[in-house]
Each structure stands twice: as C-alpha cells, then as structure tokens.
Amino acid sequence: MEPAVLGGKLASSLVAPLVKKLFATGGPGAGLVDRPVRLTHLVAFRGEQRTLGEKEVRRLAGRLVGASLDSPGEPPFPPDETEAVTDALTARLLALGDLDMDDVQAVRLGHQELAKQLQYRSPSATGGLSADACYFLDSVTEWACLHILEFFTRRSTFVARTLVEQSRWHAELIAKVDVLIARTPRPDARDTAFERRYLPYAAEQHNRITIYGIDLRDSPDRWPLEVAYLSLEATGDGERAALPGEHAETERTVRLPAEDALLTHDRVLLRGDAGSGKTTLVQWLAVTAARSGDRIPYVLPLRTLIRAGTLPAPAAFLTAVGCPLTPPDGWAERVLSAGRGLVLVDGLDEIPAADRHRTRDWLLALIRAFPGNRWLLTSRPTAVRPDWLTAEGFRELALTPMRQSDVATFVQRWHAAADAPEYEGKLLDALRTKRDLARLATNPLMCGLICALHRERRGYLPTGRKDLYDAALTMLLARRDRERGMEAVELSEEAQLELLQRLAYALVLSGRTEMEVETAEGIVQRALPSVASAAGQGDAATVLHALLLRSGLLRRPGEGTLEFVHRTFQDYLGARYAVEEGHLDVIAGRADDTQWEDVIRMAVAHARPGERAVLLRRLLAEDTPRLTLLALACLEHATALDPAVRTEVEARAGALIPPASKEDAKALAEAGPLVLELLPGPEGLTDAEAHGVTVTASLLAGQEPVGALAVLRRFRDHADLDVRRQLVGTWDRFDAHEYAVEVLDHLERTGLFLTCATAAQREAVAVMGPWACLGFRGSHRSSEMLGCVADPGAVEQLHIVANPEVTELGELSAFDSLRLLLIHCPSARGLGQLAGLSLTDLLIMEAADLTGLPDLTTLRQLSVDQRLPGTRLTDSLPTGAPLAYLYLGDDAIAGTGLRGLSHWETLGAVYLAPTTPLTAEDWAEVRRLPQLALLYLNGCLFPDNLGPMPPLPGVVDLNLMDLEGDEDIAVLPPLLPDLRTVTFSAAHGAVLDTDRLAALFPDAEVLLD
C-alpha cells in the first residue's frame, strides 16, 4: 500500500482522540517539587492514577485498526490479519509504560525514535504478520508516536519543564566548555595573542635605515625609517586596450610610487641598482604592514637564509632571520593559508648564481602551496634575465633614479634625523650649483654618503671632491658587501678599480657613455694578465659579469650594452687612468670640448703638482673666458700647486668674475654652466656686481636651471631694485611653484611688478603672500585671476595683457583697492562698471568698447592707444576727471584730433604718439594748457607728423621716445625756450649719437634712457 494512501487512512481525526485517552491529565507547573515525572506516571494504564487497563488499551487499538479498515479505498492489509495487528499495536502501546524517560526527553527524542523504542520493547508483536501488516503496524506506530508527542507539548507542565531542562542543560554545557577552553586554548586565540607581540616587534625591528661603509666620527649610520623614508618611483611595462581608431598598443611605461607596487599586483620582481633603495623599500613595506595589521610581514634577506643551506619552510621563517619570538605550532602556515601574508624576499643578487635557481623553485613552491598572499622579490638589474619570473605571474618593476626634488627632500630628512639642521642649506646649495656632485646624488646610498661627509667636515665638502669619490668607490666596491655580512668579495677593490678605469677611459676617448659588451670584454681580456687577482676568477666574460653584478658602478641599459651608473664616475675613473698613463696632452687637447670639463678637473685632482701646473698653463694659454674659468674651477682640486700658477689663474679669472655690468654678465654667461659654481655673492659685492651675477645666472637658467636657481636664491634678500627686478623678470625660466617658494615670496615687493603668463604661475601666486602690483599675460578668465589671489583687496595695480577671455570688466570690481589698471583685452566691455573703484591710472591698449570711459571721474592719468569715438576729446574722455597725464597714441585721435584737450586745465604732462599728422588747431589746444610742463614726443612724429608746432614756453622737460637715430629734431630747441631737461630713448635695436643730440640742447641737461 502506498504511504500516501496509508496516511489518508491514519488521519489525525482518528488518532488524536485515541491517544488522548492513553494519558492521565497532569496538573500545572514544572514538576520541580519531586524527581522528574517519567512516562510511567503519565500513562493512564500504569501508576497510582490508573484509568485504563490492558483490555481498555486493546479496545482503543482495535478502534484505530478498525477505523483504518473501514475508510474508503484499498485495505492496508489482508482482513484476516485484523486480530493479529490489533494485538501487536496493543503490545506496542502498552510498552509506553516501560520507557524510562519523561515527556521532555521523549519530545527531544522525536517521533520516529520513540516508535523504534516501542518496537524494541515489543519484539514479538509482529510474529507471523504479512509484509503489508508489518508495514501498516510500523506506520501506525509512528503516527501514534507523532500525536503522542504533540499531546505532550500541549500539556500545561510541558513548556515549564522544557525551560527548566534547557536551563540545566545550558548551564552544564557552558561549564563543560569553560573547562575545555581552560584546558585547551583555541589555535586562533593563541595566534592572535602571538601576533599582538610579533607585529610591534616587526615594526620596531625594521624601522631603522643603515648606511653601510660609513665610519665617520660624528655621522650616524642608522636613523628612524619613518623620519628618513623617501617615496621613490618605480616603472614597468603595462597594457592598455586600444581606443577606436588607434593602433594596438601592447606595452606602455607605467609609473607609480614604489610602495604601491603590491597594491595592483600580488607578485612583483623589483629591480634596482646598488643603493637605489630596494632594501629600504622592503623595510618600509614591512613596517607599514605591521602597523596597519592588514598583513603579516615576513622579511627574508636571502644572504641570511642561504647560509643555512636549506631554504626555510614557513614554520622556520622567523627562526631563519633571528627573530627571538616563538610562534604557536603551525602559525605561519595558518597565516599563509588564509592569504594574510606579505612575503618580502630581499637580495636575489646577493647570493651565488648557483643558488638562484633553487631559490626560484623554493619561492614558487611557496606561492603554489599558499595562494592569495603578496610576494615581493628584489634584485639588481643584471642578476637574472628579464623574463625570469614572468611566466609565474610576476610583474617586473624598476626603481628610477632620484629626481632633484627627491634629493632635496632626502637631504632635509637626513639632517632632521641626524639633528644637524645647520648644515642642510649649504649642502643643498652645493648640490644645486656643482654639477658633478648633483650627478652623483641620484640614489639614497650616495645621498647618504654625501650628507655624512658634509657633516663630518662641519658643513664643507672636501677641498677637492676626490675624497668624496674615493669614499664612494671604497664603499661600493668592497665595504658595503662585507659589512652586510655577505661572502667574501671575489675581486679586490684595487682589481675592480683597475678594470673599471680602463673601461671608463675607453668611453671618455670615444665621447660616448655606452659601450658594447663585446668591446668591454675585449678591454677586460687585455687587462687580465696585469691584474693577478682578477686573472684567477675566470675568463673576461666571467670577470665582467662580476663587475656588473657587484661593483654597483656598471649597469646594462639595454641588451648587449653597458654604462656607468653615474657619468661622474666615468669621468673620475677615466681621468685617473689618463694621469696614470701620462696622457696629459690628450686631456689638454680636448679642453675645447665641454664634455671633457669634468675629466680635466678630475685629472687635476689625480695629477702630481708639476703635472697640474702644466695642465693649468695649457688652459690659460688659450686665453678664452671659458677655459680661464675652467682653470679656476680646477683650483678646487689642486691640493698642492705652484703658487705662481695659482696666482695667475686667480688674477685672470678675477677680471671676469664678478661681472660689473649687464654686458659683462652676458659675456660671462657665454662660458656655459661651469660659471654657476664660480659666481660669488651676495656678500662683498656692489649693487652693480650683484645685478651682474643675477643676470648671468638668469641667462644660464635654460642650460642648468637647478644651479641657476641656487645662485639666484642667495640674492632674494638683496635690497637693490635692479637686482630684485631681475629676480622677478626671470620667473618664466624656472618651475613656477619652486621659484615662487624659493625666491619670489621672499622679495621686498616695493617697486616690483609680478606678471603671470601660465596656469602654473597663476597657481603659484596662490601660495605666496600678497602682491600689490600684479599682471596677467595671455588667456586667463576673470574668475581664474580672482581665484588665485587670496586677498583681492591687496592688489593696487593690475595689468591684463593680450587676453581674449575677459569680456565684462565689471567682474574686476572685486579688486576693490585698485588704483591702476592696464587693459589689453579685445573683447572687453563695460568700462563704466569700474566707476565704483577709485581708479587713478587707466591704460587702454585695446578694448571692444570705450563708451563707459566718461564715467571714470577719479582718473589722474590716462593712456589710450585705440581710436576714440566722437569728434572731440570731450565726447569720449571723462570731463569730470582731474587728469594730470594723458597719453594719446596710434589711432587714438584719428577722428577727434586734439580738439577739446584744453578742457583739462590740470594736465601737466602730455605724451603724443599719433599715426596722423598734428594740425595747427591741435597745437593750439596744447598751447592753451596752463600747467603743461612735461612733453613726450614719439619718434613717429618726425619728420612729417609733427606739423606746425608753435613755441611752447613753460615746458621744462622734454622726452623724445623710440628714436631710430636719424630723426631731424633740430626744429625743437627754438620752440621750447624754457627746457631744463631732455631725455632721449632709443627704439629697440637702435643706436643714438648722443653727442650730436646733446649739442642741439646746450642749455639743458641731456639724459639717455
């Protein structure tokens, strides 16, 4: 019979009333006054309150079986087994009284398990029954048990008893769990406790930078990483999908901060030259990860791991690097399995080549066993081939050399960490002006060495920089590896120097900075017989590879080529070899080539006193400013020298430096950037000499902006107006923000006018203090000009030149303290909207509309270059303004002439530069001006536009402007009988015969502007 059919026959309406009769009704409560109430005490046919006997139970079972047979449908078993089935069901129901449990336990057991308990206690009940009968018996038993449990849950005592039982059970469970936890702490609890100790330890352990190879007395070799860390840039190849219409671009250069290398890629191979900051970056990543708690850092220096022979499994990571903390068993594996690790493997180049492949296998096995972590491997560029880990999903990045701004930041932080701020400024100036020194300071290692040497010598670098290079070479070639605990260096320092200087001299002679590897191998091959310690290390290719890998002085910029990491090392070592070989004639013969300047200076440093004198005399013999100054620069490196030679060099150079005039400055600048480090001042210079020095530095800014800025910066507190104007006028030759911060913002503003031509300069204005006199050249919207000025009310003079963006002049009303305004804006309108300002000076070079000009009644000086509307000046100029000066140029009076000029009786100065001839009527207006004392006449008036000029008594000052030199001005002296002063100004490129011009005015003082 199907279960669905059987279920229908055993409906709840049949079972529930019968089951209810089997149990006695209990009273309310939880039964707490006695021991737990067993089912024996609940059933109605057992216990003291018995209401049913076995006979009654059989009657109930018979009714249940009979009702099933009487229901519609197929009978559940053969009818002749009715009596046997009833007996069996009776036996099972009576077994309820034998169960040793209470109602709460029965409900917890479930109806199926309760049915099995009844079956177990009445095994003989099914004897002789058919399969259908047995099936029916089991099913009706389960249905009966289900309703029995339902009956229990509805009893008034059940809920209360259940809550009591659950409370007891929970209490026992909590007590047992507490005992278990106390006896056996959870692994994650132990891990958390350990990490609370390990992370601070890791942060403190790696929060120190060490400079190896420095043993200077007063310079620290360790300082806090967080103080001195400098964010460097890393580059690599990236991919970009081609845009519609573009050619496919599979690779492009990606630049990012080095510390962000692992943010976008979980596996990175970072390459960098010796001292470029690889280990420092590893430390920084470890410290920041430890402090944030996002990742668990493991710093694994390979030079330390490889000593043990077997590279460590995760469980031995900390032990292998000497960490004194003992982690819980399996902690490292749990960290890596959860993807929480930051594994920093440092120094692939610092282990023997034979160990690199097993290191690769070790690393890849870890990555495959523990995916999801972050992995960084560092190496020098030439240690392994470019695609060494590409197939394993590693992204390759390379640390770039430090930029000028990075160097400045490093120097500042170094001195802050070393508590030596007094030496910082002088070193920064030296790095800016001394080119070879600046080329040396391109990575943290060399910067640190320079800082240490500078401090050791109390703010001075060595008298000759040879000491600096010697210290750098010793550190790079020998001491750094030895003090880092690496294996003995295969090539001695002297052997490396001998080979390197031959390579350097070959490059110097060829005028190149790169060499084919095959050529280099040939040079090494020829040198090996004379370098005994190198000859035993293998063939030329092996020795050259060792130099590339460990010296820190060579690198491979491309496949099949090599170069020196710093040009200054090439020049230094090349000069050393040239002097050793006696090639002074070769060096002196190349003095005209600017590429040999540093070689010559280093040759003087290496040469003996007699050789130095010969070389310097050869330079002086050329009698050119550049070579004379080169000889002067060489004196820095000449520790011992014939006094007569030194005196001659200083005397010859003294005639060039400092420059006494602008012309001398221009001639001095022709000598090139070498001049910058020789320029003196400002102490001990006259104002004219200080001006000459700033002009020279300004002219050299295009070739050597860093050095030029360092010179100009020294003059930022100078009081002379010409010096300050020179500093302002050369702004556009430098980085706008840097020059503003370093120079402009320190200037005394009196007499200075600052002009912005670019968006970068506009942004720089925003970071400076207020400028009262400000100009904008080019396209700048009114909102942009206002936006870059923190206090528009501080601006008193404003020039807006060649600006097509300005349309509504009323927007300039925000400059509410404006007194002078120059407008060269072809689209500008609304002059009348400026009437609310107290303008006293207005210069109109070009505007779209002049109709509002009469409203500006506060003007005292007015200049107009474009055609005025109307037929008289009083039609277009402000008749109510007390004008004292009026400039009329180009087409200004083409329609009006000077008619109406005499209206302004306050005019004391008039400038006439019209393109149309002046008439007798015009001059009559001029003559009627009662206070006219100063007359400006432009060269364009001669000879045809001057017209019938009448005598003008009362004019005491005459300025003749933009003269070409051939004008006939002899007519003027008789017409100006009261002249006391005459000033001549030449047009651009013109030369005036001042003697001839002065002879025309024998009774006046003649000046040349």
Secondary structure: elements and pairs:
Layout: H1 3-9, H2 12-21, H3 54-70, H4 82-94, H5 103-109, H6 111-121, H7 131-154, H8 156-183, H9 187-205, E1 208-210, E2 222-224, H10 225-228, E3 233-238, E4 252-257, E5 267-271, H11 278-292, E6 296-301, H12 302-305, H13 317-320, H14 331-337, E7 341-346, H15 353-369, E8 374-379, E9 395-399, H16 404-417, H17 424-433, H18 435-440, H19 444-456, H20 466-483, H21 493-510, E10 514-516, H22 517-527, H23 532-535, H24 540-550, E11 554-555, E12 561-564, H25 567-580, H26 584-589, H27 597-606, H28 609-621, H29 625-634, H30 643-654, H31 662-669, H32 687-699, H33 705-713, H34 721-729, H35 736-742, E13 754-756, H36 759-767, E14 773-777, H37 782-787, E15 797-801, E16 820-824, E17 841-846, E18 861-864, H38 873-876, E19 885-890, E20 909-914, H39 920-927, E21 934-938, E22 957-963, H40 972-975, E23 981-986, H41 994-999, E24 1005-1008
Parallel strand pairs: 5-8, 5-9, 6-7, 7-8, 13-14, 14-15, 15-16, 16-17, 17-18, 18-19, 19-20, 20-21, 21-22, 22-23, 23-24
Antiparallel strand pairs: 1-2, 3-4, 3-9, 10-12, 11-12
Helix pairs in contact: 2-7, 3-4, 4-7, 5-7, 6-7, 9-11, 16-19, 17-33, 21-22, 21-25, 22-24, 25-27, 27-29, 28-29, 29-30, 31-32, 32-33, 32-34, 35-36
Key terms for this structure?
single chain, alpha/beta, 24 strands
Q: How would you sum up this structure, described in words?
A:
The chain is α/β, with parallel strands linked by helices. Helices cover 44% and strands 12% of the residues. The chain has 41 helices and 24 strands. It has a twelve-stranded parallel beta sheet. It has a seven-stranded mixed beta sheet with strand order 4-3-9-5-8-7-6. A three-stranded antiparallel beta sheet has the order 10-12-11. Strand 11 (554-555) and strand 12 form a beta hairpin. Helix 32 (687-699) runs parallel beside helix 34 (721-729). It is flat, with a radius of gyration of 50 Å. The chain starts with a helix and ends with a strand. 40% of the residues are buried.
